[in-house]
Write a structure and sequence with these properties.
Helices cover 49% and strands 6% of the residues. By secondary structure, the protein is mainly alpha-helical. It has a 3-stranded antiparallel sheet with strand order 1-2-3, with no helix packed on it. The chain is elongated, with a radius of gyration of 28 Å.
Length: 105
């Protein structure tokens, strides 16, 4: 039987040891399971990919570019909400007047 040695950060090892212990395993057994799964799958037994993190635009409206590269422009939403608020910003004399204002849109 061969020995494999790897170096990891002390905190990472402690966290891994704790996780595997909660699963009823020791770290060596978990690593052997990973290797067996890699051999069965003829590759890494899970998806390995680099994901993009959402990037905030800092436009004051919370706009951002999502992980798929789409631009989410909340400045337009804010202006629409402000406009809608002006249209329905009473005061109203009754609930009926408020409902009429909302239904007229």
């Amino acid at each position: 039987m061969a020995t494999i040695q790897i170096r990891v950060d002390d905190n990472v090892k402690a966290a891994a040891d704790s996780l595997f212990a909660s699963l009823g395993l020791d770290t060596s057994t978990a690593v052997r399971m990973f290797i067996a799964a890699a051999l069965d799958n003829r590759g890494i037994p899970f998806s390995v990919k680099k994901t993009r993190q959402p990037m905030e635009i800092n436009d004051g409206f919370g706009s951002y570019i999502c992980e798929y590269g789409h631009f989410h422009d909340y400045s337009k939403l804010k202006s629409r909400l402000d406009e809608a608020a002006k249209d329905t910003a009473g005061p109203f004399n009754s609930v009926d007047d408020l409902m009429k204002s909302l239904n007229d849109e």
